[in-house]
Fold:
Amino acid sequence: MLILLRTYFISFIGTLFLCLSPFAFATQPKIAIVLNSGEATVSLIDMATRKVTKTFYVGKEPHHLMMTPDEKTLLVANAVGDDIALLNPITGEITGRIPKIIDPYQIGYSPNGAEFKLAKSIPAAKTPSHIAFTSDSKLAFVTLQDSAEVVAIDLEKQVIVWRMPTGPVPAGLWMTPKDQYLLVGITGADYVQVIDWRNQKEIKRIKTANGAHNFRPLGDKKHVFVTNRVTSSISLLNMQTLEKVGDITGLPAGPDDMELTPDGKTLWVTLRFSKKVGVIDVPSMKLIDVIPVGRSPHGVFFYPRASWE
Structure:
């Protein structure tokens, strides 16, 4: 099911795909699409020259984005604009809109297929933030930033089945391989919380750095990156040992969302407090370029990209 998260509510819109199949492209992406949430625009970056080629209005407070299962459309959630903009995932051009979606923020897919229509809205306390799913699509997990909780939703019944406390300001979620543990970025502290979701209990805290926020897997089914928004660094975690194995430091302020080139060699990250996008060489774990964009850049996307597994 496509789930849109917004203040106090979680919405179900039809039943669609969560997991995008791994890409096997030999070519590299040409255009990076960056959402400037603070100025209602999208910046398009030529990835070869690393220069912004175009900036245009997309809707008020665009935050998160996701490609549709047929890989033909990029959805952009305009939180204050109360709609979803539809973009061409390769060129970044606007192709349409889905109107009258109140305060959309985060988007996620579970493995079913249907049309776009509002199915149900669920009261969910304060500030629903990020989403993760079990691989069988029976449960979705949602962080509630201002309630310091994570909730589990039965996708068939579309009801909250349990909730548990987390550290302060929980944000990004990631499920480790074989649905073993749920990882939660604790933005109000300096760690990733590891949750045994079957028994609803914390089993470990992986110390990263202040402002642990969002995840992007390396694509090897073993490692995942997490941004540390306050310390301005990115940590690399081993999902098998549940240990931090490296850090990318010296970044401009506010690393947030990430995307990885299909060869796995270059990580792009939005720097929300710096009005920039960073380009990182993955083998050396070093920042190699910084690109000025608009105010408060959040989501970043390009096609093709590395696997999200």
Observations:
- The domain at 2-301 is CATH 2.140.10.20 (Methanol Dehydrogenase; Chain A).
- The chain has a mean pLDDT of 90.
